[in-house]
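ok so i was messing around last nite and threw this chain in just to see what happens. nothing serious, just curious
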Amino acid sequence: MTALLATGALFCSGLVAVAVPAATAAPARAAGAVAYIANSASDNVSVVDTATDTVTATVPVGDGPSGVAVTPDGARAYVTNRGSGSVSTIDTATQAVTATVPVGDGPFGVAVAPDGSRAYVTNFLSASVSVIDTATNAVAATVPVGAAPNSVTVAPGGGSVYVSSAAAVAVIDPATGTVTGTIPVARPNGLAVTPDGTRLYVSSQQAGAVTVIDTATRTVTGTVPVGNSPFGAAVSPDGSRVYVTNIGGNSTSVIDTATGTVVATVGVGSTPIGVAVTPDGGEVYVADSNSGTASVIDTATNTVTASVPVGSGPYAVAFAPAAASTADVDVDVSARPSLGILVPYLTYTLTARGRGPNAVASATVTATLPPGTTATNVSPGCTATSGTVTCTYGTITNGTSASKTFRVPLHLLSLGTVKVTGTRTASAPTDPNPTNDSAATTCTVLSILLATCG
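result:
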């Protein structure tokens, strides 16, 4: 296994299990979360769109990337480079490295605090944890821990940091930056803490089992036999399942946390190491180190639905949430006089254009009329009150438009300049561009039978 670093029988990676907000179901995703997969042998990170299970970008980083974690807001990904003694910071908006932070020797695991203020990095060869201030991208503290620290995770409330080392799990108090306790575990590797913070699941490679720890008492409450050489561990968003990769068995064990038993064993690629669950709980991504792929497991059926080719020696997986959908609504107002009839009037057209990047699901545009004026003959979906017309629009796809019309009889208007303004007052999804949310048109009324509109 060329992508693994071996110390005796212990294989160490930058595996991170990050607790995510609770959820009770696995809804279909219109927009997928983004997976960041550290490829240890190709010195890069694959960026995968989970909606399509395709690689959308490849980001060069340092030597031997083996751990990855994403900030809670999804803005940055932190990647440990075990051969470079550094951590690369990736801007997820541009998919580019914006900073490289020197840390200890052989950095492997990384986890980000729930408030995003700190990133914790295990230094396998320095027997320490580097604490990175994410605001400055500088090491704020170095915490000595047990020998050969590898994986790390942070309690959901941020009150404890758990680090697996050669023969125990160390507990760091982030407030003091000191180790406040150790829990003996045989060759601990992957760590997964439940969303409520009450239990910690630790994979033990030599024991072929997962150790269950009560975080309040810091005592072992049970063990769950899994596959051959278990390594990575990740918990589902609702806390009902723990997923454990088995290096020697080329499989992933699914543990029911209520019963403490394995309810499924899913065959994946060769030498599975890192594992993570999508934020909605619908899929599990497994880094198949010797296959150069990421296996995608459907959590509803416990079957592999896709195998995504990534870089060489994929080691760790972390997710950024799906980007929020946005849709720019461009408002336009036009007018034309209708004269020489029994009741002359001005016809106004309110137009809403979809400028992308997503379709407009709904929009409301309000036209402001001269004071005391009430429109007539309004289009369906519009309502008129004294001084305003409010129109609602349904779906408007990118690059198309929808229009509504209404009339204002000339006898209701004073002579001179008449200005009508249309303004977007609501829309979904979020409109990212307020500069084109309003427009106006001006007409000049010379008499009850004569008007011009520019």
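not much to say yet. The CA atoms of residues 365 and 424 lie 4 Å apart.
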